[in-house]
Specification:
The protein has 5 helices and no strands. By secondary structure, the chain is an all-alpha fold. It has one domain. Helix 2 crosses helix 5.
Length: 85
């Protein structure tokens, strides 16, 4: 998986949705639709962002455990930053 989705600030709000969608190891059409709707609501999301997210939204080519751990680490770091610690 590309790390662009994890490092591009424009995608920060979508990362929890992606993490939650893969929590059970499967990605459903409903989960994909939820991420796509969030994409459409954000005018800052351009083609490069969409392409970066596309890799995370393919149920036939799921992220590796290492990819998911990187995602969880990014979310944990964001939570720590938000608390100011």
């Amino acid at each position: 998986m590309t790390t662009t989705a994890l490092t591009d600030q424009r995608l920060t709000e979508l990362l929890p949705l992606i993490s939650e969608a893969w929590d059970d190891g499967e990605l459903t059409d409903v989960e994909i639709a939820a991420v796509c709707m969030a994409l459409l609501r954000n005018p800052d999301i351009d083609l490069s962002c969409r392409e970066a997210l596309h890799e995370w939204l393919d149920p036939d080519d799921p992220p590796t455990e290492q990819d998911l751990q990187a995602l969880r680490s990014r979310l944990a770091a964001d939570a720590t930053d938000a608390r100011g610690t």
